[in-house]
Structures are given as structure tokens and as C-alpha cells.
């Protein structure tokens, strides 16, 4: 979420605190409109955890190794990563 706050701050000229408040308002609004499991996944992605967050991290370096596969499977199947 820090990356999103920094982007909003940069693009709008808002202070980091103001940008953080704006991002929180928008995300809370969006999450209220989504089914609970999807809203939880939004939080997981923004924190870098969860299935989609693990997938994004696995692709960050452009290659997937055994640890990436284990993390992805654990995240998608609800087990330990």
C-alpha cells in the first residue's frame, strides 16, 4: 500500500499523510462493494501476501523457482507458504 500512497502523493501533490488518507477512503469504499473473500484478497495483495500477492512476487524477478511454486501452492490451497 505504501507504493500506492507514494504514487498518489506524487501524482496529486498531496502530502504522504493526505495521500494515505485518500487511499484508505477509496480502498474502504471499493472493499465494501466487493464480496468479503474478494475484499480480503485486495488486502492480501496490497500487503504482498495471499495468492495473488505471491504470484506478483514470483514474477518480480522474471523467473519462477521452487520456492515460488511452493509459496504459490501454499497460498492458493490455504496452507503454509
The tally of beta strands, per DSSP, is 0
Strand content: under 5%
| Contiguous helical run count | 5
Q: pLDDT average, as an integer?
A: 77
Core attributes:
single chain, 81 residues, mainly alpha, 5 helices
Describe this entry's structure for a reader.
The mean pLDDT is 77. The chain is flat. It is built from five helices and no strands. By secondary structure, the chain is mainly alpha-helical.
How do you describe this structure in short?
The chain is an all-alpha fold. It is 78% helix and 0% strand.
Can you lay out the helices and strands and say which pair or pack?
Blueprint: H1 2-12, H2 16-33, H3 36-47, H4 50-60, H5 66-76
Amino acid at each position: 500500500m505504501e507504493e500506492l500512497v507514494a504514487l498518489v502523493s506524487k501524482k496529486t501533490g498531496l502530502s504522504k499523510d493526505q495521500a494515505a488518507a485518500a487511499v484508505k477512503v477509496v480502498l474502504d469504499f471499493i472493499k465494501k462493494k466487493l464480496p468479503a473473500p474478494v475484499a480480503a484478497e485486495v488486502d492480501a495483495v496490497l500487503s504482498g501476501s495471499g495468492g495473488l500477492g505471491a504470484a506478483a512476487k514470483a514474477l518480480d524477478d522474471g523467473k519462477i523457482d521452487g520456492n515460488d511454486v511452493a509459496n504459490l501452492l501454499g497460498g492458493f490451497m490455504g496452507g503454509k507458504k
